[in-house]
Amino acid sequence: MSSIRPWRDIARRQCRQIMVGKVPIGGDAPIAVQTMTNTLTSDARSTIDQIRRCEDAGADIVRVSCPDVESTAALREIVRAAQVPIVADIHFHYKRALEAADAGAACLRINPGNIGSSERVAEVVRAAKANGCSIRIGVNAGSLEKDLLEKYGEPCPEALVESALDHIKLLQDHDFHEYKVAVKASDVFLAVAAYMGLAEATDCPLHLGITEAGGLIGGTVKSSIGIGNMLWAGIGDTIRVSLSAEPEEEVRVGFEILKSLGLRTRGVRVVSCPSCARQGFDVIRTVEALENRLGHIKTPMSLSVLGCVVNGPGEARETDIGITGGGNGKHMVYLSGVTDHHVSSEAMLDHIVSLVESKAAELEAATTDVGGADGAH
């Protein structure tokens, strides 16, 4: 089969590139995955511990809330300990932005029109420039400016885009261009329409998200539909999946969205069947155990886990490692798409983990000279 599959190509929107610390956003850079801590930022140790878990899950950028001086006071320690750039969310308090910039934040999440006078915006811009900070403008349907609500009557795509452009102008008026923008809404249709409009109106990088998406299952589905729709259209340079769940789960879901569209590769991509009466082993429990035990693998690779021989061989031929359920507790193992050997039900789980770890080490060694395993297509 030809490896050229034009029906799978996604043409990404062309935009300017900015830097969030060491992470490039926009241009031809990989789409970055972000999350946000839910600890008290003033509790530096708990916040650092949570950031570490997010880093282990693959987070490229982590945002922390800085609503008070105690939080920005702890930020310097947090930034020093973090291995990824830290974004400081300062809400409406411009002094927190000044403190966060001085403390080493790589980016400030701030809507310049909400912090008061032009002099305050100028102060924040000076602090950002002096400290090499970028800025993320975050427009939200739930907190639109009063004049826009009066003008449009309700949150709508046009209102979100106008709000974003108003905030952008305030930064441009102060000769600041290192910004990215989000126009989030909990309503998928509203968010997607607003992002589509903003993508045509500006050349800056876009931060995607469906805000207040819900719990782990509902929020994952909702975010996948909204964020996936925009990514498929080529829109989006960094994403945050907003879940009422631990932040590392947001990172995992974000990578799964990107992996499903071929936009980013990280870790093991599992292909598995929903199981039925034909299964030769407990597919559901096996996949659950494998996902837990292989979460530490960062090297991109594929694993198929199929309960029977109906679709199993075909799927296994397309993956790095595959297992197909057979009779009498003996299951066929495929390596690089070719039947290789059998394994018993009792030994299967440990055996698959061992095969994946060995294959990951092999692939990692082969890619060391070309920039590592976590990349983009």
Automatic annotation (TrEMBL):
The enzyme's E.C. designation: 1.17.7.3
Pfam families from the UniProt entry: GcpE, GcpE_C
Catalytic activity, as annotated: (2E)-4-hydroxy-3-methylbut-2-enyl diphosphate + oxidized [flavodoxin] + H2O + 2 H(+) = 2-C-methyl-D-erythritol 2,4-cyclic diphosphate + reduced [flavodoxin]
Keywords noted in UniProt: 4Fe-4S, Iron, Iron-sulfur, Isoprene biosynthesis, Metal-binding, Oxidoreductase
Record GO terms (molecular function): 4-hydroxy-3-methylbut-2-en-1-yl diphosphate synthase activity (ferredoxin)
Pathway: Isoprenoid biosynthesis; isopentenyl diphosphate biosynthesis via DXP pathway; isopentenyl diphosphate from 1-deoxy-D-xylulose 5-phosphate: step 5/6
Domain IspG C-terminal: 270-357
HAMAP family membership: IspG
Summary of the function given for this chain in its UniProt record: Converts 2C-methyl-D-erythritol 2,4-cyclodiphosphate (ME-2,4cPP) into 1-hydroxy-2-methyl-2-(E)-butenyl 4-diphosphate.
Protein name stated in the entry: 4-hydroxy-3-methylbut-2-en-1-yl diphosphate synthase (flavodoxin)
Organism: Novosphingobium aquae
